[in-house]
């Protein structure tokens, strides 16, 4: 079974390291994290690359497609993703450490291919 997590980024250097760290800390760890940046003008790409050097599961998808927004960005990542399961990750979320494990277990136990999931927890950082 192969698992890809895809993330579209744009000017997210205030959040990206924490989000990537939360994904890399999953209890289920056999996955690839495919990230495509949509032309950030801050340090987002540098932050991603610095983490990719440390963990080979992180793959920065590079192409010659111009910036077209988050929807097109996700669509372009999906084109480069051949896998059994795909999870979407926003650039500014923090994942619970067992998110992948629980969703994959649910999908297998119920013989389903699509598991929509929105998990929300209030953030008191503002």
From TrEMBL:
Superkingdom field: Bacteria
UniProt key word Mitochondrion: no
Any one GO molecular-function label of the UniProt entry: hexosyltransferase activity
SUPFAM superfamilies recorded: Nucleotide-diphospho-sugar transferases (SSF53448)
Calcium found in the keyword field: no
InterPro entries per UniProt: Glyco_trans_2-like, Nucleotide-diphossugar_trans
One matching Pfam family: Glycos_transf_2
Start and end residues of each Glycosyltransferase 2-like domain: 5-111
Keywords assigned by UniProt, alphabetized: Transferase
Protein's name according to its UniProt entry: Glycosyltransferase
């Amino acid at each position: 079974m192969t698992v890809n997590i895809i993330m579209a980024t744009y000017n997210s250097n205030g959040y990206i390291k924490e989000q990537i760290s939360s994904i890399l800390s999953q209890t289920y760890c056999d996955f690839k994290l495919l990230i495509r940046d949509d032309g950030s003008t801050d340090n987002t790409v540098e932050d991603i690359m610095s983490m990719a050097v440390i963990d080979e599961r992180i793959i920065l998808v590079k192409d010659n497609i111009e910036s077209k927004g988050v929807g097109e960005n996700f669509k372009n990542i999906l084109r480069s993703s051949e896998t059994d399961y795909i999870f979407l990750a926003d650039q500014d979320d923090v994942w619970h450490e067992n998110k992948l494990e629980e969703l994959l277990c649910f999908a297998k136990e119920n013989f389903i291919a699509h598991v929509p999931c929105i998990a929300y927890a209030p953030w008191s950082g503002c």
